[in-house]
UniProtKB/TrEMBL annotation:
Lineage of producing organism: Bacteria, Pseudomonadati, Pseudomonadota, Alphaproteobacteria, Hyphomicrobiales
Keyword Transmembrane among UniProt keywords: yes
Family annotation (SUPFAM superfamilies): MFS general substrate transporter
Keywords: Membrane, Transmembrane, Transmembrane helix
Record's protein name: MFS transporter
Keyword Metal-binding: no
Every Major facilitator superfamily (MFS) profile domain range: 216-398
């Protein structure tokens, strides 16, 4: 097992890499639709670049897991950063050549980069045992808070930096941030040789067997609901705010508070998991997501939107980080890559579907119906999670 000094070093390196790589998503999400609107006259295709980003993220998880299992995390992350650099340059060329499809290819490749960045949280738990896993995971996710600020600010600083090519500079910046991540990731230490040999000699249990274990199924389901519902509601919220008479500035401010609420709790989430248990924190996160929906259902004033979105961000943090920590308890070292990769493939596959369907459901059924759908989804996971929490003391006593 890695020494304490190596573990602390890796957590710091991964948090810094999360700051650089985590900016990738906000840049694509904030500009994808705007650039798409400039490059195509087909209104149905305007948001396709953002949806392709989410699709690339989902499709990239299993290949990323395979590469990291075969060649190690550091090699995989370096390849991911190269994909991120290429993604920004391809998107820039799409704008330069006024090609919607080349630009969309760039956002799709950016999704592949994101599939590597998302696994930084799992890498933080390598060499960590027990309650400290949650602290390690949340420490890396603090980098997401910096990324949530850096990404949008980069858009503001660079959007007019290249004359006659609005927003093209932001994608050069996206490529530069990914390039800057390469020397950072080179500082990442590989696992101990004994552990690496163990992973090469045995693949552990078949993935089908692991998928059938109730503990893993519940962990994956908690991650799916936490992240899926957050994406489902967040995607629709700005449109709903504008449709109900609020300004674009108010909508943007609501999303800003939401993103800050997603990552700011990471300063304490790990310690809360260490003290109260990851299942309890996950359950609290899901409950907060349910409360956010009830706030949204209680009115359409700007305050209802802002409070709801802030609670949604906090609920996502507790729910998703808790579910991530639950997954790390479900595998042996040799099973690590395939178990974590399968988890992310399922989670981000659902996220991609939520991204595609959210706007359509808002247009067909409205903001109120969208939030009503949150409540049964939360209850579906919260009930078995509470049952497991109640069974845990009995199992310990036995």
């Amino acid at each position: 097992m890695s020494s304490d000094a190596t573990v602390r070093r890796n957590i710091f390196v991964l948090a810094l890499a999360q700051t650089l790589g985590g900016s990738n998503g906000p840049i694509v999400i904030s500009l994808g639709g705007l650039v798409g609107q400039e490059l195509t006259t087909d209104a149905a295709l305007v948001t396709l670049p953002v949806s392709l980003y989410n699709l690339g993220l989902a499709l990239g998880t299993l290949p990323a897991a395979f590469i990291m299992r075969r060649f190690g995390r550091r090699s995989g992350y370096l390849l991911g950063a190269c994909c991120g650099t290429a993604a920004g340059l391809i998107a820039f060329l799409g704008i330069y050549w006024a090609s919607f499809w080349i630009f969309s290819l760039g956002t799709f490749v950016a999704g592949f980069y994101a599939s590597y960045v998302q696994s930084y949280r799992f890498a933080a738990a390598d060499g960590v045992t027990g309650p400290l896993k949650g602290i390690a995971i949340s420490s890396v996710m603090i980098g997401g808070l910096a990324a949530a600020i850096l990404g949008p600010q980069l858009v503001i600083w660079t959007r007019e930096s290249i004359p006659m090519l609005p927003f093209a500079g932001a994608f050069i910046g996206q490529a530069a941030l990914a390039l800057m991540a390469i020397p950072v990731l080179l500082l990442l230490r590989a696992p101990d040789r004994a552990e690496a040999r163990q992973g090469q000699l045995s693949g552990g249990r078949p993935m089908g067997e692991i998928l059938r274990t109730p503990r893993y199924m519940l962990a994956v389901a908690a991650g799916v609901v936490s992240y899926g519902l957050m994406t489902f509601v967040m995607t629709a919220a700005p449109i709903a705010m504008v449709h109900t008479g609020h300004s674009v500035d108010h909508a943007a401010l609501g999303i800003q508070w939401h993103v800050l609420a997603m990552f700011a709790p990471s300063f304490v989430t790990g310690r809360l998991m260490a003290r109260y248990g990851k299942e309890k924190i996950t359950a609290i996160g899901l409950a907060i997501i349910g409360v956010s929906a009830m706030v949204a259902l209680s009115g359409l004033d700007i305050g209802h939107f802002w409070v709801s979105l802030t609670l949604l961000g906090i609920g996502w943090n507790f729910g998703f980080l808790g579910a991530t920590a639950m997954v790390t308890d479900c595998h042996t070292p040799e099973e690590r890559s395939k178990v974590q990769g399968t988890n992310d493939f399922i989670v981000f596959g659902i996220v991609a579907i939520a991204s595609f369907t959210s706007g359509a459901l808002l247009n067909s059924s409205g903001w109120t119906m969208l939030n009503w759908l949150v409540l049964p989804a939360v209850a579906l996971i919260l009930v078995p999670l509470i049952w497991r929490i109640r069974q845990a003391p009995a199992a310990t006593a036995a």
